[in-house]
């Protein structure tokens, strides 16, 4: 007979931490920024630049993820740990900074399997190492009891003496570029919500599903854009048009997207779109959670490696408010809203 999984209610906090701490060690020693890691009342981190870039985000069961999806896919602790790390690392990346340390708070019901929690710790450290945030370590965190799973991650980062890239610096004539994917995570979410069982999906379709559960932000692109002279930048978490609208408003400009480049971004999504009877362009324009970067670069400058030009920055006028257009016509995709959707 299969054994009943050990749950967190069957362990003391010290016993559970003893299982988690070894999984949070990325190497024999923590990164140089972590002076004192897990095990004390608080962590101690170094701030050699004199400034700290910080971001925090939360994933809540049945709001940001489901333990079991409509198509039969079961979300693992590894998935949640990876995504919790990735979405916060992406926000640091969007400032042109590099992550240095991370703290994690986990709230969970008492019947949560211990193996799920161990997998979450593995997902956190795997995302840090595999996404290229090698200078970052998990410095500490908190465990608590609650009615649902909830994971909050805060990440600290450094600009290494440089200036942050804000949303407000785009100028008329700049080139608009994108790094990373657009619409892949939205296609993956549509597959998770569909009646097409996960076992029936093709490898290409499975890759979309996996990128919804374990996004891959281009962490090398943010600091590179900063040193290359990017004038404005932000993480694409809520959809290309919605986030571009935010950048346009902050910079008081119009961002005009090129239809041909949007078609190129949509092409890898056509197989999944055909299966679901969907429009891949809608995923590109409105889908979130890919955690790519949207950035503007000075006129005449070639966008740095990893970025693709997808449009231009235009001035606002008496009859043109800040916003997003496609070949001069108003974009109609609204993207994701945490409170409206």
Question: Which tags fit this structure?
Answer:
341 residues; 7-stranded mixed sheet; 10 helices; disordered C terminus
Question: What is the element layout, followed by pairings?
Answer:
Elements: H1 13-20, E1 34-36, E2 44-45, E3 53-60, H2 77-94, E4 98-108, H3 114-130, E5 137-145, E6 150-158, E7 175-179, H4 184-193, H5 203-213, H6 221-228, E8 232-236, H7 240-251, E9 253-257, H8 259-266, H9 270-276, H10 280-286, E10 292-297, E11 307-315, E12 323-326, E13 329-330
Parallel strand pairs: 4-5, 9-12
Antiparallel strand pairs: 1-2, 3-6, 4-6, 7-10, 7-11, 8-10, 9-11, 12-13
Short description:
The protein is of the alpha+beta class and 341 residues long. The protein contains 10 helices and 13 strands. The strands form 3 sheets. A 7-stranded mixed β-sheet has the order 8-10-7-11-9-12-13, sandwiched between helices. A 4-stranded mixed β-sheet has the order 3-6-4-5, with helices on one face.
Net shape: globular
Number of strands: 13
Spatial strand sequence of the major β-sheet: 8-10-7-11-9-12-13
| Rg computed from alpha carbons, rounded to a whole number of angstroms | 21 Å
Q: Give the number of helices.
A: 10
Q: Roughly how much helix do the residues carry, as a percent range? A: 25-40%
Q: What's the helix-strand series? A: HEEEHEHEEEHHHEHEHHHEEEE
> What's the average pLDDT?
92
């Amino acid at each position: 007979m299969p054994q009943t999984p050990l749950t967190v209610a069957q362990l003391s906090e010290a016993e559970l931490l003893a299982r988690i701490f070894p999984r949070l060690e990325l190497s024999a020693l923590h990164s140089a920024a972590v002076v004192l890691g897990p095990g004390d009342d608080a962590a101690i981190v170094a701030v050699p630049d004199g400034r700290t870039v910080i971001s925090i985000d939360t994933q809540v069961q049945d709001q940001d993820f489901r333990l079991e999806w409509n198509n039969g896919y079961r979300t693992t602790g590894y998935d949640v740990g990876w995504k919790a790390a990735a979405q916060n690392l992406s926000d640091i990346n969007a400032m042109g900074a590099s992550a240095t340390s991370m703290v994690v708070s986990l709230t969970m019901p008492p019947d949560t399997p211990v193996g799920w929690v161990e997998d979450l710790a593995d997902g956190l450290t795997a995302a840090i190492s595999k996404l290229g945030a090698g200078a970052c370590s998990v410095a500490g965190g908190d465990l608590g009891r609650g009615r649902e799973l909830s994971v909050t991650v805060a990440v600290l980062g450094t600009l290494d003496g440089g200036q942050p890239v804000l949303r407000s610096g785009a100028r008329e004539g700049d080139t608009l570029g994108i790094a990373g994917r657009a619409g892949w995570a939205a296609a993956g979410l549509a597959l998770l919500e569909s009646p097409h069982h996960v076992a029936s999906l093709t490898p290409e379709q499975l890759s979309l599903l996996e990128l919804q559960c374990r996004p891959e932000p281009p962490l090398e692109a943010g600091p590179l854009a900063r040193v290359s002279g990017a004038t404005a930048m932000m993480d694409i978490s809520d959809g290309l048009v919605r986030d571009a609208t935010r950048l346009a408003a902050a910079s008081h400009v119009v961002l005009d997207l090129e239809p041909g480049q949007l078609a190129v971004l949509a092409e890898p999504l056509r197989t999944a779109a055909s299966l679901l009877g969907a429009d891949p362009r809608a995923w590109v324009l409105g889908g979130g959670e890919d955690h790519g970067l949207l950035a503007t670069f000075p006129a005449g400058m070639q966008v740095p490696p990893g970025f693709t030009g997808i449009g231009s920055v235009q001035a606002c006028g008496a009859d043109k408010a800040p916003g997003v257009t496609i070949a001069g016509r108003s974009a109609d995709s609204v993207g994701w809203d945490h409170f409206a959707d």
